[in-house]
Amino acid sequence: LAADWFSYCTMKALIRRAKETSPGTGPQSKGGKEGKENLHPSDPSEDVPLPPLPTDLPRQIGSVATVRLLEAWLSAEAEAAILGNLRRRRKDFVTLRTKRTARFGGDVGPPFVPEALPGWLDELCGVVSTVGNLTPRANHVLVNHYEPGQGILPHTDGPAYSPWAAILSLGSAAVFDFWLDHAHAATGMLPALSLLLPPRSLLIFSEDAYQKHLHGLADRPCDTLEGIANSSLLTRTGSPGTMPWQRQLQADGSLRREERYSLTIRHVPTGEHANSGGYGEEAVKAAAPEDETTAG
Q: What is the pTM assigned to this prediction?
């Protein structure tokens, strides 16, 4: 838990630092109290409602239990609507070393300070919770915007959330990896599971895959596709326009990365769920170092 908390505090400190140095987001930002960032200055009236979302059920995939994937979950129309909403909310993003990120649903804390989700994101959370049979219902979304070649180090999401996560990929395909633990990730050995995540795909992982395994996205402009658990996807054919990510395939068999957005959909325990399963506020406090600033 201490390692997970260190990763979480580092991320939180970087986001805070980026906001403090961004124009119009300091302690005196309009509409915010002293010492609080104006997290979502975008005009919600600009958001576009989503078309009907699918209710297909994800399937278990690979050798790591409780990892499920829907490789073509979202329609092209819904992807375009979500990407448009996110790009109109560019002021909500802060720039970190390896990506741009935006948080919706509130500061995880502790204590958790919830914020109302934009209507279209709340709808998305509800549908994802239903199709994934995820409880309690999702109430938090972290959006990461990756340029080609950017990624995120192996990590676990830690005790601030209920023990499951759903990741919606948009814009570009990429290879996503799972490692058994920190020691495995440090050896440089092959991951325990590698998956090709096409744009519009929905990845769900829970229990041991969430609590014990690490997950991440390597920093590289191209992904090797050797050893991915869903390699049958490479030879699959579909109707025109259903697999546009295939344009990323290179002559040498690798996959060229393009601009990618990922929406990590989770539940932050609150109220009667706050201390359930050891993943509530008390567990977070127990894992916290004495001085959070040591992580930044």
A: 0.78
